[in-house]
């Protein structure tokens, strides 16, 4: 038998949303299901990679052969990514919350009965992808995702430069992609844009894993 294409390679993946606490019972979140990231983790493992999947709060089974690290917040995700290095490639699929509540309340915030509303102050979260791509333990291949609702390619191209990623996988989330089972993606690289037809998320994952194996070869 030929050796598996990704044998001996370590690939780091982030997936799912993050939850940013407001108080012990409330949080800021987003609609990421984690499906695409989990599918990519499974596909890479099937190609023989050692896969570390840093997952935000999602109710999905761990793909076969994948080492999963569960986190809740963006800052926990950043620390778990750092702890998983070094890696040959990183695929940052997580929909990391851009902001967290500044100084989450230690106790449940109560209505005071006067009809007054609390003010939520926000602080910016670390950009995990940009930190990794610009850091001194940068994986050889760094891939980011871009969920956009308009000007998908333009925004992805700008994001690639801004974040220092090798590839940005852009998808149009103006429809029912989030939580759905199919995805239409465009891969923006230094060489240009490659657009794939609408595919089930599992098929996107298999094809992307093969593309990653070719790039690391
Ligand atoms: O800037 P935007 O959130 O659109 O960028 C998306 C890409 O950046 C994804 O690959 C996502 O996983 C990554 N990201 C990150 N840390 C953040 C925000 C985004 O790693 N705080």
UniProtKB/TrEMBL annotation:
Keywords: Decarboxylase, Flavoprotein, FMN, Ligase, Lyase, Magnesium, Metal-binding, Multifunctional enzyme. One of its GO terms (biological process) is coenzyme A biosynthetic process. CTP binds at residues 98, 108, 126-129, 145, 159, 163. Residues 6-214 form the DNA/pantothenate metabolism flavoprotein C-terminal domain. Binds 1 FMN per subunit. It catalyses: (R)-4'-phosphopantothenate + L-cysteine + CTP = N-[(R)-4-phosphopantothenoyl]-L-cysteine + CMP + diphosphate + H(+); N-[(R)-4-phosphopantothenoyl]-L-cysteine + H(+) = (R)-4'-phosphopantetheine + CO2. Its cofactor is FMN; Mg(2+). Its EC number is 4.1.1.36, 6.3.2.5. Residues 11-217 are annotated as: Phosphopantothenate--cysteine ligase. Pathway: Cofactor biosynthesis; coenzyme A biosynthesis; CoA from (R)-pantothenate: step 3/5; Cofactor biosynthesis; coenzyme A biosynthesis; CoA from (R)-pantothenate: step 2/5. One of its GO terms (cellular component) is phosphopantothenoylcysteine decarboxylase complex. GO terms for molecular function: FMN binding; metal ion binding; phosphopantothenate--cysteine ligase activity; phosphopantothenoylcysteine decarboxylase activity. In the C-terminal section; belongs to the PPC synthetase family. In the N-terminal section; belongs to the HFCD (homo-oligomeric flavin containing Cys decarboxylase) superfamily. Catalyzes two sequential steps in the biosynthesis of coenzyme A. In the first step cysteine is conjugated to 4'-phosphopantothenate to form 4-phosphopantothenoylcysteine. In the second step the latter compound is decarboxylated to form 4'-phosphopantotheine. Catalyzes two steps in the biosynthesis of coenzyme A. In the first step cysteine is conjugated to 4'-phosphopantothenate to form 4-phosphopantothenoylcysteine, in the latter compound is decarboxylated to form 4'-phosphopantotheine. This is Coenzyme A biosynthesis bifunctional protein CoaBC. The gene is coaBC. The chain holds residues 180 to 396 of 396 of the full protein.
